[in-house]
Amino acid sequence: MAAKSPADxxxxxxxxxxSARKIRDNAADWHNLMMKWERLNDSGFTIANKIVxxxxxxxxxxxxxxxxCDNSTTESEKPTPKYNEELDNCCAELLExxxxxxxxxxxxxxxxxxxxxxxxxxxxxxxxxxCTAPFFHTWPTPYFYEVSLKLxxxxxxxxxxxxxxxxxxxxxxxxxxxxxxxxxxxxxxYIENSSKLLLEAMLLETGHRQC
Length: 211
Prior knowledge:
The protein has 211 residues and is mainly alpha-helical. Helices cover 72% and strands 0% of the residues. α4 (141-168) runs antiparallel to α6 (194-205). The longest helix has 51 residues, at 13-63.
């Protein structure tokens, strides 16, 4: 009896099984990364709020009339602004928070790339004439990539906004602008409300959530 060639005897099920398991793992990773991001966003807001409070306190002190200052004091004799250790520490903490958020966003991009690779693999099987039934319930494989890409783009834009906030918030003298920075950090305008729905739908499809 002639032995089957590797091409004839290669079953599709193990490939599907591996791909489906990776998609399922990716969904869990998305959940974990988004939860970590939210915790960092909360802690970052607390730090940013401290920075604004310190800046406003400095402005209040600077606006006080210097009653004890001799009118004859020349410009060169006036004390230079003192180093604010609390402000410096808060800025360092906020920068560190941003670094952690950057790592999370890069991991999100990697998840998206992995999902794209699985889609390409499935397209190859489809061109080869093999069945491409859904991995789980109803989602076609490309939809996992579409969802991942949408989420990744949201967090990429939000990270860019946060980078601007970190660069500017401690240097602004405009109280209204500082409040805009605070509000923007907290409410994350680039992360749409649909992000939570997309995540929950993906968890439901992959079996991490039950109906």
